[in-house]
Amino acid sequence: MTSQEIRQKFLDYFKSKDHLIVPSAPIVLKDDPTLMFSNSGMTQFKDFFLGYKTPTAPRIADTQKCLRVSGKHNDLDDVGRDTYHHTMFEMLGNWSFGDYFKKDAIAFAWELLTEVYGIPKENLYVTIFEGDASENLERDQDAYDFWKSHISEDRIINGNKKDNFWEMGESGPCGPCSEIHIDIRSEEEKAKVSGLELVNNDHPQVVEVWNLVFMEFNRKADKSLEKLPQQHVDTGMGFERLCMALQGKSSNYDTDVFTPLIAKVEELSGKKYTGILEDEKDIAIRVVVDHIRAVSFAIADGQLPSNGGAGYVIRRILRRAISYSYRFLDMKEPFLFELVAVLQNQMGKFFPELEKQGKLVTEVIKSEEESFLRTIETGLIRVEKLIQQTISENSKVLPSEEVFELYDTYGFPDDLTRIIAEEKGLTIDEDGFNDEMKKQKLRSKADSAQKVYDWVTLEEREEKFVGYDQIEAETYITRYRKVENKDGEFYQVVLSNSPFYPEGGGQIGDKGILENAVERFEVLETKKENGLIISLINGLPKDAGAVFYAKVNASERKNSQANHSVTHLLHEALRDVLGTHVEQKGSYVGPDYLRFDFSHFNKMTEEELALVEEKVNAKIKESIALQEFRNIPIKEAIEKGAMALFGEKYGDTVRMIQFGSSKELCGGTHVKNTSEIGHFKLTSESSAAAGIRRIEAISGDQSDKYFKGLENQITELSQLLKSKDVVKSVEKLIEENASLKSEIESFKKEKAKGEIGDWKNAYEHKGDKQLLVKKTSLDAGSVKDIVFQLKKEIPTSVTIILSDADGKPMITVGVSDDLAASYQAGTIVKDLAKEIQGGGGGNPGFATAGGKNLDGLESAYQKALEI
Fold first, then answer.
1. Which of 62, 112, 589, 692 qualifies as a cystine partner to 507, CB 3.0-4.6 A?
2. Whether the Cβ atoms of residue 88 and residue 38 lie closer than 8 Å to each other
């Protein structure tokens, strides 16, 4: 049974059990402040479990892309070193929201595994929650009783809280779970040791394949448990492990989930995969084929490698793969990008984003490979210098600070430094390096540390956003919670009527004021979390239940929404000018400026930029009225021509924003008419990543300020030039400047001619050779011309000129051709450059060096006389 057939059978089975089959959510999360990535199948359904949204159906099934590389769930360091850990993996899941519970969930799982997939019953074991007295949680007797009707009681194992009580995080929905484990060992091994003894003991062939979670409780911030109003089922089955079991393999990497990728790596590297756990070559191949999946899906879902946040995690995964292939597969040129086509062929049918974004994914990975390979080459030079320095100090240990700097600042893998050091008979200061790592983590943790208390609910009221229609509203605080961070103590509040737009879709959240006749609080930011619009205020009202008046900062909102509307017009203009391959890949919308990232593989020309700016301003001048479609079915919006962005998760109903022919799905705030934007001014165009260009621009008040600033500059120039025709006056200055430069060059040449005669007579005879050491204030160009002339005209000569032109020390050395074999100009200049705290180089006949210490020219002069 192929992996594609296994996946399809799962979906078909649950469709036959009245489950709605939904597509995988993006692997990268953009609207959840608590997570960077989907790290489990239930992530996209969190709002359903928490009661913030109504489920689209009471029964759902899917296959979800997951990534576990940060935070509590971090499998990165295990990947490649065993047969079953992965960064990116698929989680097959079925869900019940207040519909069926333990009995049916257990029956479905057993039927699918034993009858549809045909797994022998004697190879399966199950676990149930044994209870926990410290939390007054009883043994899950219901699950035990339901399992008894399917499997013998001696195969039902009690599991502790760690293994059999599933929690979403520090707080949130949770409950007992029942794991299904499969024993895929040979009959001979099974006869020696019972599978019962190996369950949950990290045996690579007795593994958990499916976890049935029974959501019954909500974990509060104070760690107490409360019953959920409804009972839910959340299951997750590891697709890769299931394929291993059904295909009769002992390793996930031996299944057809990975074998096509491994075959391609073998072809490109010339290395054969043997599957040996300890073999560094095989570890490298496993790392490569695992990591290429994680990186490809993340980029396809809109997360580009970068130096911060989720982008840094993706860059780190990719660089880990490059590092392993560089060291153990001898791959010194980019090659990972060639695996993307194989991945598309394997998974494109179920995950169309790979097909749609294939070119972008390929180009980004290739560019990152090229960049990091350059980093490795540069790092090798730095490591060599560090090794030589360590040896010169008669030490055998590379200092931890320098090794950490190589890793942290320059991105050079610490394990590569370790290997190179060992080859030279050295080690690194492991304890010191680990201390540096701990310090970095503590700094990072301190910067982001935040203690969040439980919500205090004041009064059950409808909580809604009214900010599309008004920027001031009478409101009540429905709930609040205290937040403590490095900046102090604050309070998050949820309002019954909130005019404050929560950060999202690239647009920053609103700020403003929350006040009544007695108190006034500053709203510092507004975000959305688990469906709630949360505003952060700088204190707690004495009477939190009183009526308040919420006021958005009007000028900031006005400019932000002007910039947001501009991004829609800009997107359309870019597609008109560059082509329909252009797609938005990220944005920032604030009151001061906008940033817009889009897919395009070439730097835009001045003509293209001018045309885009012209098209956007033409739309603004047309005074196009906003057409807003709220809560429109997504299918209808797409039929109307609305653009849906890859990597975004849309609900069944959406909001569509239309300005004439520009139609996009968007939740942001917008102007009522394009004329309110004022004027659009493009300020820069640059590369954001491989295949991604970035435009920064201004509009509204900032555009007015920009042109006012230009006007003031022209006025000042007119006054300085004493002319209203600024252009003509500047042209005249340029002509005069060119003429003066020409005269200066003539003077320099005349001066140099005068110097040459004197310098020829100043050579000292040193045996059968001649030496000239001379100080001068001539510029570098003049010195170079003279030295070249002298080394030609004066045989068997070494010429050393020390210059202090423009207050900067410089040393120039010339050696006549007949001495170049024994007196190297580059060697001489490097030795003398030490005196001026500088460096330089050249060839045997001519070399130069600059430095920092002007006073050192005197000691360099004395040293030169000894040559």
1. 589
2. no
Residues 131-148, buried b or exposed e (16+ Cβ, 10 A)? beeeeebeebeebbebbe
If you average pLDDT over residues 92-106, what whole number do you get?
95
Average pLDDT over the chain, rounded to an integer: 89
Alpha helices in 329-399 (DSSP H): 340-347, 353-356, 358-392
CA distances from 231 to 20, 139, 215, 484, 839 (A): 19, 17, 6, 33, 73
What is the Cα gyration radius of the chain? 35
Mean pLDDT for the stretch of residues 20-49: 79
Report the candidate in 31, 46, 39 with the shortest Cα–Cα distance to residue 64: 39
Helices within 247-308 (DSSP H only): 259-269, 280-300
Q: What is the pLDDT of residues 194-236, one digit of tens each?
A: 988 999 888 888 999 999 999 999 888 888 898 888 899 999 9
| Alpha carbons 326 and 655: distance in angstroms, whole number | 48
Pick from 21, 4, 26, 665: nearest CA to 357: 26
- Say which residues have a Cβ less than 8 Å from residue 248's Cβ, sequence separation at least 6: 184
Among residues 727, 822, 842, which one has the least CA distance to residue 780? 842
Sequence-distant (6+) residues with CB within 8 A of 634 are: 644, 650, 651, 652, 653, 654, 665
Helices (H) and strands (E) in the chain, counts: 24, 36
Residues 6 or more apart whose Cβ sits within 8 Å of residue 575: 582
CA distance 523 to 502: 12
Question: For the ranges 180-194, 266-280, 435-449, 458-472, which has the lowest average pLDDT?
Answer: 435-449
Q: Quick: pLDDT tens for 391-440.
A: 888 888 888 888 898 888 777 878 788 878 887 888 888 888 888 888 88
Nearest to 806 by CA among 783, 837, 785: 783
Length of the chain: 867
Q: Which long-range contacts (CB under 8 A, 24 or more apart) does 778-782 make?
A: 778/748, 778/751, 778/752, 778/803, 778/805, 779/748, 779/803, 779/805, 779/806, 780/805, 780/810, 780/812, 780/848, 781/748, 782/748, 782/749, 782/751, 782/752
Cβ 626 vs Cβ 670: under 8 Å: yes
Binding-site residues from annotation for Zn(2+):
564, 568, 666, 670
Q: Mention every residue, 6+ apart, whose C-beta is less than 8 A from residue 695.
A: 570, 574, 595, 596, 598, 682, 684, 685
CB atoms within 10 A of CB 35: 19
Residue with tokens 């006034």: 520
**Contact (CB, 8 A) for 363 and 601:** yes
> Cα(793)–Cα(684) distance, rounded to whole angstroms?
53
At 501, give phi and psi (nearest 5°): -75, 130
3-state SS, residue 95: strand
Whether the Cβ atoms of residue 798 and residue 820 lie closer than 8 Å to each other: no
Beta bridge partners of 490: 483
d(Cα 233, Cα 657) in Å, to the nearest integer? 37
- Cα separation of 689 and 306, whole Å? 8
Cα first-last separation, the chain: 81
Main-chain dihedrals φ then ψ at residue 179, nearest 5 degrees: -95, 145
Residues tagged in the binding site annotation: 564, 568, 666, 670
Classify 620 in phi/psi space as left (phi over 0), alpha (psi -120 to 50) or beta: alpha
Task: Kindly give the pairing relationship between strand 464-465 and strand 450-452.
Answer: unpaired
- Which range of 21-25, 408-412, 618-622, 863-867 scores highest in mean pLDDT? It is 618-622
The answer to whether the beta carbons of residues 312 and 298 sit under 8 Å apart is no
Whether 67 and 38 have beta carbons less than 8 Å apart is answered as yes
Long-range contacts at 858-865 (CB < 8 A, ≥ 24 apart): 859/835, 860/802, 860/809, 860/811, 860/832, 860/833, 860/835, 860/836, 861/773, 861/775, 861/802, 863/831, 863/832, 863/835, 864/773, 864/800, 864/802, 864/832, 865/771, 865/773
- Tell me the DSSP string of 621-673: HTTPBPEEEEEEEHHHHHHTT-B--TT----SEEEEEEETTEEEE--S---SB
